[in-house]
Write a structure and sequence with these properties.
alpha/beta; Rossmann fold; Alpha-Beta Plaits; six-stranded mixed β-sheet; four-stranded antiparallel β-sheet; 36% helix; elongated
């Protein structure tokens, strides 16, 4: 459905996208991730025919985005991070306007507007001026305009920005339900959202693809060693020194993400790849007559993998 082959984009001397290639099959939801200035937005703008590439080829639904841009645009719904809204228009008037721009037949415009309003739960807001909507509802209007022509492909850039937790869950479920009829590329900084929504992930950094796989495979392929969370009844400085001397331990730090009860200290221990240190860490604590209240491994997350891949690439480039 979407094929990106050896795409490069230069802005003068700046290389924004460097020989990027990937495919998205029909019905897939693919997360497209990267740090700021990694080349995500530039790549999405090329896919949607908003800008040309310097080199390479891109096709959407079999149409070349350079030579057949109008055909591509008919088949794509694009939600940029800042949706192109007209604040002085009412929601339904704006959606009718967008439907006409996208070539929806006049006889179908009302039907498509009603469908988009229902999908994005904008019913109570459909007659309001856009400028009077909250940021969250404006984001929903942006999503509605992307859906208005029932496109084969949806490109969503930060679709849940400004939404409250309940709305985020609703949009997440909407995106998953749309996969039956649409191919979706989802770009977001909310990495847990990708884990819960996407089947596959493409990670870009410094303009290059650094990883492409399922979430599960990515999390198992990058081995940086396990991490442990401890609750220890004892002085942190002494604990840090003794546990830090255990073979296989990389770092011992206070765990800012955990709370400790009473006099216990919450500690995070990061270990070297391939090393199992739990037995020796527990032995060290008991030998020093400290109270071991908790010792558990931390499950790896997509955020861990993302940081490791992008940080490693930046260090190599430096």
């Amino acid at each position: 459905m979407i094929e990106v082959q050896n795409v490069t984009k230069r802005y003068g001397p700046t290389l924004a996208v460097d020989n990027v290639s990937f495919r998205v099959e029909k019905g897939e939801i693919v997360g497209f991730l990267g740090p700021n200035a990694a080349g995500k937005t530039t790549t999405m703008r090329i896919i949607t025919s908003f800008m040309p590439a310097t080199e390479g080829q891109v096709s959407v639904a079999g149409y070349d985005v350079f030579d057949e841009a109008m055909e591509v645009k008919k088949r794509i719904g694009y939600l940029p991070e800042n949706p192109p809204l007209y604040p002085e228009m009412r929601v339904t008037d704006y959606l009718r306007f967008v439907a006409a721009l996208k070539g929806v037949a006049k006889s179908q415009i009302s039907k498509q507007v009603d469908r988009a309003v229902e999908l994005t739960t904008l019913g109570e807001m459909q007659n309001r001026l856009i400028k009077k909507l909250s940021k969250g509802f404006r984001q929903r209007v942006g999503l509605a305009q992307a859906l208005i022509n029932e496109p084969d492909v949806l490109i969503l850039d930060e679709p849940t920005v400004g939404l409250d937790p309940k709305q985020i869950i609703e949009v997440r479920e909407l995106i998953k339900s749309l996969a039956a009829d649409h191919t979706i590329i989802l770009s977001t900084h909310i990495l847990p959202e990708v884990s819960m929504t996407c089947e596959r992930v493409v990670i870009i950094n410094r303009g290059r693809i650094v990883a492409e796989d399922t979430v599960e495979n990515l999390m198992s392929s990058v081995d940086s060693g396990e991490s442990l969370v401890l609750q220890v009844d004892g002085p942190f400085d002494a604990i840090q020194e003794k546990i830090g001397a255990v073979d296989g331990v990389k770092t011992v730090n206070l765990d800012s993400g955990a709370s400790a009860a009473g006099t216990a200290t919450a500690i995070r221990v990061d270990c070297e790849p391939g090393k199992s240190v739990r037995r020796e860490v527990a032995k060290t604590i008991v030998t020093n007559d400290w109270g071991l209240l908790e010792l558990r491994p931390i499950s790896r997350t997509l955020e861990d993998v993302f940081l490791e891949l992008t940080t490693e690439e930046q260090e190599v480039a430096a």
